[in-house]
């Protein structure tokens, strides 16, 4: 079972495997290929009570992305403490053998990149683009004030839309692999 503290949990690999249908290819919701070595899966947590099962996004890292499980767990817990209405909140992690996974709230209405670059018939109006910029600035300001001023690789693929099209910043990007990624320092002043 999972152990948890205040909305953040350590999940077992078995729980996440069950939630994602065995990490089934049809549940992959991320871009794939050489530039995206880590996969993100859509899933549903198993519940022991009644009510809807929460939708989750599970980011599965490549085998060598995080060799030190203690460091990964510490980073995940640090980001897991962040809670804001403009963040797709991180709700847990898994360190099992060589496996490193992050669990976040699932955002069903895709990324800003898909809305701007891939859907010619559904372009985003300028008023919405300005709202997106403002909401992301709110999220970055909050993170900076909470002592997490770094955001890695901020781009349109990191901006997600929830079920009512609110824009949220993907928190899994606050977890920085020490191998090959360079941070962007964000200043609020």
Automatic annotation (TrEMBL):
It comes from the Eukaryota. InterPro entries: BSK, Kinase-like_dom_sf, Prot_kinase_dom, Ser-Thr/Tyr_kinase_cat_dom. It is found in: Cell membrane. GO terms for molecular function: ATP binding; protein serine/threonine kinase activity. Gene3D superfamilies: Phosphorylase Kinase, domain 1, Transferase(Phosphotransferase) domain 1. Keywords: ATP-binding, Cell membrane, Kinase, Lipoprotein, Membrane, Myristate, Nucleotide-binding, Serine/threonine-protein kinase, Transferase. It catalyses: L-seryl-[protein] + ATP = O-phospho-L-seryl-[protein] + ADP + H(+); L-threonyl-[protein] + ATP = O-phospho-L-threonyl-[protein] + ADP + H(+). It is a lipid-anchor. Signal peptide: none annotated. Residues 26-189 form the Protein kinase domain. One of its GO terms (biological process) is brassinosteroid mediated signaling pathway. SUPFAM superfamilies: Protein kinase-like (PK-like) (SSF56112). GO terms for cellular component: plasma membrane. The keyword Disulfide bond does not apply. Its EC number is 2.7.11.1. This is non-specific serine/threonine protein kinase.
